[in-house]
Amino acid sequence: TIKLLLRKWCNLLNRPAIYFIMGTGNARKRDPLVLLEQALIGGISHFQLREKGPEALTGIALKRFALECQRLCKAHRVPFIVNDDVELAIDIGADGVHIGQDDLLCELVRYRIGKEKVLGVSVHSMEEAKCAVEAGANYLGMGPVFRTHSKVDAKEPVGVNKIMEVSRQYPEIPIVGIGGITPDNAETVWKAGVFGIAVISALADAEDVIGEVNRFKALSERGR
Ligand code: TZP
Ligand code: MG
């Protein structure tokens, strides 16, 4: 188990993180599983299933879809994280859970998923960051850095200053920037000292998903 754990953590902490987030509603140009597979072939480092919106899958259909995503991620050795749905994550043995401030308390989620699973938490301030770190978060999501159309209740864009503050305060905790990130503006985010960048639409809406992942990867080398 030590070896397995190490492998998992090496994966999780692999830099630079190109963290793809998607639900069926984000896949407007192609089948969601085709989209995910192309992103994996391109070389994303993390995947989060974030099933939201009026036509979101639920129940058994959601579970089936999640299992398909998990199978693809496993084949590419990419950590598979579930947004919000702690029970689903536990049920299918996902690698981790990502929660926001409106979801369950971090302590509770950490207790439910156990020590070995990854817990990611979205934070917007030093106070929230402190709280999440103390409750056992393994990484923080911060944003929206830029304007985004992919989250209905997104806050105003905050840029990268907060990210820099929090990463100075907590140098050990990986921070992932999110919100409106594209290959054209990613360099600014890398320069803030992030561990990774998380994107939905830049990949979901790309004509050439594999090429776009590679653009992000090339930029990450330059930006840091
Ligand atoms: N949280 C903050 S912004 C955002 C989430 C889930 C949406 C990011 O999507 P996009 O398309 O990369 O701006
Ligand atoms: Mg949430």
Automatic annotation (TrEMBL):
Enzyme Commission number(s) from the entry: 2.5.1.3
Domain Thiamine phosphate synthase/TenI: 18-203
EC class (word): transferase
Pfam family for this entry, one: TMP-TENI
Pathway, per record: Cofactor biosynthesis; thiamine diphosphate biosynthesis; thiamine phosphate from 4-amino-2-methyl-5-diphosphomethylpyrimidine and 4-methyl-5-(2-phosphoethyl)-thiazole: step 1/1
Annotated positions binding 2-[(2R,5Z)-2-carboxy-4-methylthiazol-5(2H)-ylidene]ethyl phosphate: T148, H149, S150, G180, I200, S201
Residues annotated as binding 4-amino-2-methyl-5-(diphosphooxymethyl)pyrimidine: Q48, L49, R50, E51, K52, N83, S122, K151
Molecular-function annotations in GO: thiamine-phosphate diphosphorylase activity
Keyword ATP-binding (UniProt): no
Binding site for Mg(2+): D84, D103
Cofactor info, note text: Binds 1 Mg(2+) ion per subunit.
Keyword Ion transport: no
InterPro entries: Aldolase_TIM, ThiamineP_synth_sf, ThiamineP_synth_TenI, TMP_synthase
Cofactor: Mg(2+)
PANTHER family: THIAMINE-PHOSPHATE PYROPHOSPHORYLASE (PTHR20857), THIAMINE-PHOSPHATE SYNTHASE (PTHR20857:SF15)
This protein's name: Thiamine-phosphate synthase
Organism: Paenisporosarcina macmurdoensis
Taxonomic path: Bacteria, Bacillati, Bacillota, Bacilli, Bacillales
